[in-house]
Amino acid sequence: MKLKYVVLLILFCPLTLLGQSSKTTLHGEWAFALDPVNIGEKDSWYTADFPLTRWDQVTVPHCFSVDPRYQLYTGSAWYIKKFKQSPVPPGHRAFLRFEAVFYKSAVWMNNKKLGEHEGGYTPFEIDVTDALSAENTLALKVNNAWDTTTIPGAKTRVVYENENNAQVFPWINYGGINREVYLIIRPSTYIQRVKIVTDPDLVKKTTLLQVRVDLANADASKKITPVLTIYRDKVKVPFKGKLKPAGTSQSTGALWIEGTLAAKDVALWYTDEPTLYEAEVIAGADTVRTRFGIRKVEVKGTSLLLNGEPIRMGGCNRPLDYPHYGSMDPQEILEKDLALIKSGGMELSRISHYPVSTHLLDWADEHGLLIIAEAGNWQLTPKQMSDPVMRKKFQSQFSEMVERDWNHPSVFAWSVGNEFPSQTDEGKSWTKDMYAYAKSLDPSRLVTFASMFVARDIIKKPEDEASQYVDFISSNMYGNYLSNLKHIHEIYPDKAVYVSEFGIRTDGVKTEQGRVDHLAKAMQDFRQCDFLVGASVWTFNDYQSRFPGTNPNGYRPWGLVSPERELRGMYYAFQEEFAPATVAFRSEGGKLSITVTARKDFPSYTLRHYKLACGSQTFDIAQLKPGESKTFTYEGPAVKEIALVKPGGFTVLKKSVQQ
Description:
With 659 residues, this protein is α+β, with helices and mostly antiparallel strands. Residues 1-19 form the signal peptide.
C-alpha cells in the first residue's frame, strides 16, 4: 500500500529542522578540558562518574583557540554536559543537533559512543533516543588538527609550492563547539528535508512553486495528511497545489507539490526590497515553520539578472575572525559587520571560503544581500582532487551546506572551490563532476568556482581551464585588472565574469591613500568592462593566520576595517565607489538643488525606495533605473551634509555641503 497524502494548502521552504515538536537548547554551560596526548577515550572521560572537579567551566558556543591559556592549540579537547530530561513520549525520537563543531568530533551519551562527524562549518545530527535517560552525561571529543586528508588542510607534495606554504591554510583552525547545540524531540515519522523552487513568470507576474518534502521513517501503511499554510505579513495567502512523485528519490516519504501562486499574491525579493514569506507545514505530529523569498536569478550571455533586471554589484569577503571570539560570530558582532557591509554597497559577495552561519543568511534574507556559498577545496592539489576519499568528504560537507541553505533567497550560487589548479586535468575533472553534483542537489541555482588561473596568459582557449564548465566565471586577481578582464573576455566572450577577490594590504603601500588610489584605478578598469557583474574586495576585515607572509602581530592586514572593526580610509573609499548612485548639488538663491543619478556603469542596478536626507528634510526616490536622474530642491536652514539612504536605513553615500 502506498503512502497517501492530502494537500490542503501549500507553501513552505527553507528547512531549519528547529521549528518542530520540541527543542531544548543545550548550549550554555559545559565542562571543558584539553586532551593533548589523546588519553581521554582510553581513560573513559565520557563516563557519568568521571570526575570533572578540575575541569574548566565554559559557555558554548565556545572556541578554545582564543583562550589565552590554550591560544592556537591544535589537538583534541573534550566537552561534557550533564542535563536532565523527561522521558521521550511514545512514538517519538530524540536527536542531538550540532550547528558546527570544528573539525572532527565524536559523541558519547551515557557511556555509549553514538557517532562521529567530520567538517567544521556544517551541521550534523545524531539519534540519541535509545541512550537518553532521566539523568544524562553528554560527552563530545573535538579535534581541530589538519593534515592532507582534511578539508581545509595541508597540501600533498607539489612542485609548485614550498613546503612551509603547503603545510598550512591561511586562516586559523579555531577549534571547539563554535555554534549552537540542541536536543530535538520529534515524532517517529518526521519532516526530514524540505526544498522549494520558485519560478516567477516575469510577464504574467505569477509564480510556479515546486516543493519537495522528505518524510523520515514514513510508514507506507499509514495515511499522512500534510497541512500547509503560507503567510505574508502574517496574512494567509491562498494557494492550491497538486501532488506528484518525487522523481528519483528513494525515500518512501518523498513527494513533490506543485502549483501556481496568483499574481496578486506575488511580491518579488530584491536586494532593496527583500520581501519574505512565512510558511508552515504540518505532517502528522510534526511541524516546520520557515521563511522564504520569491526571486529569479539567471545568467544570460554576459549579464547576471535578478528578476529579469541586469545587476552589477560590489561585494566583499569576510573571514570569520574576531578578537577573543575566533570563529564563534556572536550575533551583536555579526549584525554590526553586516550593517557595515550593506552600508558599504557590498551586496553581492563570495563572502567566505566555507559555509557561513544560518544567522548570517537570515540577516541577508531580511536586508537584501546576495551570497555565493562556498564549501571546502581551498587549493586542493591534483592528487587530492582525484582521490575518491577526498571527493567523498567534500561532497559530504557540500551537501550538508546545500541542504541546510538551499531555500535562503540570499543564496544565488554555489561555489565548488577556491584557487585549486583548475588548468590541470584533475582540476577540470573536479569542476565538471562537482558542478554535476551541485546541480543534482539543487538545479535551481548557479554554480561557479574562484579561479586563480583563468586570467593568466597560459590560458589560451576555454579547453585550457575548468571555467568552461560553470555558469559564470569567478576570478581572483590582484592588479592588472583591465588586462586580466579583457583576457578572460576574449576567451569567454559570452560568459559573465565576477571578480571574486581583489584588493591590497595595508602594508603593501606607504599610506592608506595608496590603497585608496589602488581602488580608484581598479574601479576605473571595472567600469570599462560591461561583462563584469560583480567584484568582491579581499577583505572586509583583517584576520589571524599562520600562513607565510602574516605580520608579526598574527594578522594579515587586508581589511577595510581593523580586527576590532575600526573603519579605515579604504572603507569610506569603497562606500563611495560602490554606491549605486552619484549625488551632485548646487546652491542658488538660498535653495539647494540636488541631483541623484543612478550609475549605469559599475555598480549598476535599479534603485528602489531610496531616500535623500538633507537636514531635517527627506526626499523619497521611488525608483531610478541605471542612468536615470531625479532632482530635488531643498529650502531651509543651511545644512552640512547630504546623505543617500537605502531601504532599511543604511546610509550608502554622504556628501559635505558648503553653502
